[in-house]
Amino acid sequence: MASHGDGNDTPVYVCTTQKGPRPPVGHLPLSAIPGEPSSTHHGSHRVMVGSQGIIPRWDVRTSRPCTLQYYIQTGTFDNPDNLKLTQDLLVKAAKRWNDVDVGVIFAATTDAAKAHFDVVYIPNPEKPTWIAGTFFPNDVDRFEIYPPSFNDPDIRKQLVNTFTHEFGHILGLRHEFAATKEADPSVQIGVMNPNSIMSYEWKTRSFSQSDQDGLKTFYAMNPGAFVGKIAIQDYKPVFVKRG
Ligand SMILES: [Zn+2]
């Protein structure tokens, strides 16, 4: 399923975060500081950013760190081993990004009232090939995990990288191939790295220095700065509304 080609050059790994433009939900954006063109030089690392005509990012300036707390809906998991694996690997994946120290921290919470997003297991997704999916800062939703993450042995082995990839989306990163294969406009910071954790080359990808340096460059840019023709817009986390 995720381990074989499908006859063209589209990688088979299926992350649903970019499954299509969704209307922004949740919180209002911080007003962007208008019109400051960014430097055209961002070093030799590259990340893809931008979604739905803006470049959404978390606000690390008015309050630092900007902490994003996730709440695992344990009742959605049908297997205690898979739940434990998820708990452990989310901590590992979160630590990778937290250690980059751009001012955004992922942290687990067992208090649903203090969660900025939920982690849920979806046993019957729309498509059986889906592996996981999250959201961008302007489009807060859920961190969803689908059956192949646990049931396909090859994918299960790579789960910490899957989770790292999904946290990368939550930080505002697009797929490495977004510019050529996804309709929603994106722009790049830095140079290409096919083995980026944000690529679909799921057997060779890794949490790369280029991912870390690219994220640092991205979060060091001014709010409102343009990359290409679209501007960075900062968002503040809000708690998940219940009921
Ligand atoms: Zn993805």
From TrEMBL:
Instruction: Write the protein's name.
Output: Peptidase metallopeptidase domain-containing protein
Species name: Cladophialophora chaetospira
Identify a single GO molecular function assigned to this protein: metallopeptidase activity
